[in-house]
Request: fold
Amino acid sequence: MAPASSLFLTLYGIAAFAVALLYFRPRRQSFVESFPPGPKSPTMPTLDSWVQYQQWGREHGDLVYIRKHNTLIINHAHVAIDLLEKHARIYSDRAMTEMMKLCGFNNILSLEQYSDKWRGNRKLFQQNFRQSASRRFYPAQYRKISQYLRDLTVAPEEFMQHTMSLSQSLIYSSLYGLDIGFDDPLSKKAIEAVALIGRAILEPFPAIELFPWLRFMPSWFPGCGFQQIANKCAQYCREVDNIPFDKAISNLASAGTSLIAELALENEGKPVEIKKIKAMGTVSFLAASDTTMASISSFLLAMIQNPDVQSKAQAEIDHVIGRDRLPTLEDRRSLPYVESVYREVMRMHPPLPLSSRYFLTFCIGHFHVSIEDDFYRGYHIPKGCKNFWPSVWSIFRAMGRDPNVYSEPDKFMPERFLDSPNGPFTSINDIHAFGFGRRVCVGRYMADNTVWLAIASVLATLDLHNAKDNEGNEIDIPGEYTEIFFRHPKPYQSSITPRDLQARDLILATGMVD
Ligand code: HEM
Reply:
């Protein structure tokens, strides 16, 4: 055979071999087969989604993959730690819709995508909210919680409003040095802003998602009704950014300093930094108010439903602290049962559910999104996968209520922490209600102190019971919870009274000190 034709045959042979290799290589089909198991074409639940998630967990295991929505439901804490913490580089993104961009939410840290900009914003938060820095908030926390006790004593029937007021006013006080009550126009504006943000996130706006260029059309253009909501939302967010910031700066001359004012002074003439500082204030308000309120509200209800726990925690406080002062954060380590009550509230009632209603509308939220393909326990977890991390219903029922970890998981039993081998004072990282990995709640030290102090102070001074009707019969509490964005008890009637005259005097005396 001529050398040319032999060379040709050799090359031909190599090419044919390469084609065969390509053809028979393990391909997409095997990826498909190696996705984590899950229901084939499920209808995503809209109400009580945790029931369905838990059921899927029982049927398919720790990881449940919904291929139709490229969504992974994590049913167990150890998987959340493996993926969201150990593989955090991959699983720290968030999804951002066109509507959210239009509303300007790409400046809201909790919703921002994983990027250098997010890192910069988060760094500012971390510097000011890390454990040691959060001591700065103690005075505001003591002041506002004393005010809360007084409000509960004077107008107990409005306990839900007082709880919200505590959560909001604490942020204004600790960050801006402002005393802003529930009725203040700024509070009202901020509440409206939260509602608008919720609307922009929760409602479906398919037109803008499918045709992003519609953002350039006027609001009267057919299908462009979303423009009005987006404009209003952006305007409210700007006002909520600017009003307290300007007040904090003008207070410097007369009423004194504050964290935000000090940071603004340090960064005078640096517009990019000033924008970050303003955003930190606004995001704190948005991220702290409903979550803190929800945790304290869940505690109040749990105490009414579990009078034995209430009495036991009160007895511990009486024994350790006595009756003539309020608990302080320095007392925390001496009150293991109160700590266990706090841990049990956070286990049973994480305030940030992520209902599927939310999910069905193109939506996003606090779930983590993966930025590249990953392989875990032999499964392929595709890029862009939304990890329904646990503040989703899955933590609430499947993680926080995993019977393999917590016996009788639906019972409010602080003893499970008190009697556990490590005791109740474990790391804050064990409180899964604050999330996982690089997106873990950046305000958690502040939140942890506020919720604990509120719990200890209420237990020290107040008795919580069912309300009674005119015949003196106890009024039943259905114990229902909201289940949209934040999860907290629905309105109910209760009886909140000072434990005795001494407690009443102690509460009212705090007003003279403030
Ligand atoms: C009981 C109260 C609170 C609870 C239960 C809570 C819970 C959470 C959760 C579950 C997340 C998402 C974590 C994740 O994606 O893995 C989060 C994020 C966040 N929280 Fe909190 N939070 C609380 C209070 C606060 C407070 C007081 C602040 C600040 C003043 C705050 C600021 C933030 C911010 C800025 C983020 C977004 C972090 C990021 O995406 O990088 N939170 N929180």
Remarks:
- The longest strand covers residues 462-466.
